[in-house]
């Protein structure tokens, strides 16, 4: 586990980092896997999902405030490990900004200062904000099927507030993939 909440700063400067960002059940993991395969690179899975599934399986409990820092550290550990193993491109299924948004939403504006501080540093080339036009897929960790539009607005507002570069991905799986590839290809050409 990471001792401090901090991205590895000694990664190659030419490394392009793309983060898939948005409400639950909007196809981020599927797209992350597809993009990593297409570009023959690594992707960073969502640590929170694994962490919370284990917690549910063993204790029948969902996320609690005391889980936020361990989740953030686990996410950064995964990202840092993979950042050091790729040269050109890293696809992140999520990042700390998403954890910040969820924390503030579920805990009435509360988010640990350590998470807020690291989440609001822009260490990504582009955020691909996934729209809510995908079918809802229920599971034990997803709980807001009727709040998708509200959540999308909250996620987009956070990007605007931080001034982070982003593009919205809409449409079916093929359309999203095609648009994401177009965006990433442009970034790779600039680099």
Q: What count of helical segments does DSSP give?
A: 7
Q: Can you identify the CATH class?
A: Alpha Beta
Nearest-integer average pLDDT: 90
Tell me what portion of residues adopts beta-strand conformation.
5-15%
Radius of gyration, in Å, reads 16 Å
Describe the model.
Residues 17-176 form the NadR/Ttd14 AAA domain. This is ATP-binding protein. One of its GO terms (molecular function) is ATP binding. InterPro entries: NAD_biosynth-regulator, NadR/Ttd14_AAA_dom, P-loop_NTPase. It comes from Aequorivita aurantiaca. With 191 residues, the protein is of the alpha/beta class. The chain has a single domain (16-190), classed as P-loop containing nucleotide triphosphate hydrolases (Rossmann fold). Helices cover 48% and strands 12% of the residues. It has helices spanning 28-39, 47-59, 68-83, 96-106, 113-119, 148-162, 173-190, and strands at residues 16-21, 42-44, 89-92, 126-130, 166-169. It has a five-stranded parallel β-sheet, with helices on both faces. It is globular. The N and C termini lie far apart (32 Å). The model has no long low-confidence stretch (mean pLDDT 90).
Blueprint (SSEs and pairs):
Blueprint: E1 16-21, H1 28-39, E2 42-44, H2 47-59, H3 68-83, E3 89-92, H4 96-106, H5 113-119, E4 126-130, H6 148-162, E5 166-169, H7 173-190
Parallel strand pairs: 1-3, 1-4, 2-3, 4-5
């Amino acid at each position: 586990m990471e001792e401090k909440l901090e991205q590895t700063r000694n990664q190659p400067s030419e490394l392009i980092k793309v983060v898939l960002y948005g409400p639950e059940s909007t196809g981020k993991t599927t797209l992350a896997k597809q993009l990593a395969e297409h570009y023959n690179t690594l992707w960073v899975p969502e640590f929170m999902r694994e962490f919370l599934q284990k917690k549910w399986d063993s204790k029948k409990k969902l996320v609690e405030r005391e889980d936020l820092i361990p989740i953030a550290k686990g996410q950064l550990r995964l990202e840092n490990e993979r950042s050091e193993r790729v040269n050109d491109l890293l696809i992140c299924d999520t990042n700390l900004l998403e954890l910040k948004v969820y924390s503030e939403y579920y805990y009435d504006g509360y988010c640990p200062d350590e998470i807020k501080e690291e989440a609001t540093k822009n260490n990504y080339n582009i955020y691909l904000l996934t729209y809510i036009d995908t079918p809802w897929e229920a599971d034990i960790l997803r709980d807001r099927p009727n709040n998708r539009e509200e959540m999308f607005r909250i996620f987009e507002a956070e990007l605007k507030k931080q001034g982070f570069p982003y593009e919205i991905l809409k449409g079916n799986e093929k359309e999203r993939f095609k648009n994401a590839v177009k965006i990433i290809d442009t970034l790779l050409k600039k680099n």
